[in-house]
Amino acid sequence: MRNKTFLITALLFVLSFNTQAQLLQIGAKVGLNYANFTGSEIQSDAITSYHAGLIAEIKLMDKFAIQPELLYTTQGASYDRAGQEFKNELGYIAIPVLAKIYLSKSFSLELGPQASFLLSEKNDFDVNNSNTFDFAVDAGLSFKITKNIFLQGRYVLGLTEVSTTAETKNSVLQFSAGLMF
After folding, report:
1. End-to-end C-alpha distance for the chain, whole angstroms
2. What are phi and psi of 99, to 5 degrees?
3. Residue 124: which residues within 8 A CB-CB, separation 6 or more?
4. What percent of the chain has pLDDT over 70?
5. Cβ distance 180 to 150 under 8 Å?
6. Are 74 and 87 in contact (CB under 8 A)?
7. pLDDT, tens digit, 9 for 90 and up, residues 108-133
8. What is the CATH number of the domain that holds 94?
9. Domain region containing 146
C-alpha cells in the first residue's frame, strides 16, 4: 500500500511539474537601444547603447501571458555645443511588466509599465542632477523564430523627468534577441 501511495504521489508531482513548465518559461535577452531625451528646449541627438537581462513568460490563457523582465539598460542623449559633442549616459535597472497578447503562434503584442532605478551616470560635462527613478510605458512586438529563440522591437516612452533641473524624459527604441530555456 505504501509503495502505491508513493508511486501515485511521485506521478502527480511529475505531471504537476510538467504542467508548471508549460505555464512558466524563463530566458535571457540582449539588444541595442537607440535612446534620446524628449521635451527639452535643448536640441539633443540620440545615442546607441545596449540592454541585457532576464525575462519570464507566465502563460495565463492560450493567447495571453504576463511578461516580467529584469534588465540593465543604458539610455541618454548627446548634445552639440559650439562644435563639441557632450554625452550623457544613464545606466538603469529596469523592471518592465508587460501584458503579452498573441496575435498568432509566432507574433505577439507587448504593452505595459516599466519602473527603472538609476545605477550610474556618465557625463562629459559636470551635471549630476538626474532623478534616481524613472517610470515609463512600453509597447512593442515580439516574433518567435523557434520555440526558444525570439526577436523583439519595443518603444519605451518615459513619463517622468530624467533631471531635476530640466523637463526632459527618456525615449528609447529597443531591438532585442533572446533565448527561452
Report:
1. 38
2. -85, 130
3. 85, 86, 87, 88
4. 84
5. yes
6. no
7. 999 999 999 999 988 755 455 788 99
8. 2.40.160.20
9. 24-180
Quote the number of domains for the chain: 1
Query: What is the rounded distance in angstroms from the CA atom of residue 76 to the CA atom of residue 44?
Result: 10
Q: What's the confidence (pLDDT) of residue 163? A: 82
DSSP, residue by residue, 117-181: EEEEEEESSS---B-SEEEEEEEEEEEESSSSEEEEEEEEEE-S-SBSSS--EEEEEEEEEEEE-
In a domain, 15, yes or no: no
- Cell 510538467 sits on residue: 18
**Residue 5: inside a domain, yes or no?**
no
Cα-Cα-Cα-Cα torsion 119, 125, 127, 128, nearest 10 degrees, comes to: 20
One-letter amino acid of 84: Q
Does residue 19 lie within any of the structural domains?
Answer: no
Cell of 95: 523592471
Residue 131 lies in a domain: yes
166, 146 contact by CB (below 8 A): no
Q: What pLDDT score was predicted for residue 165?
A: 79
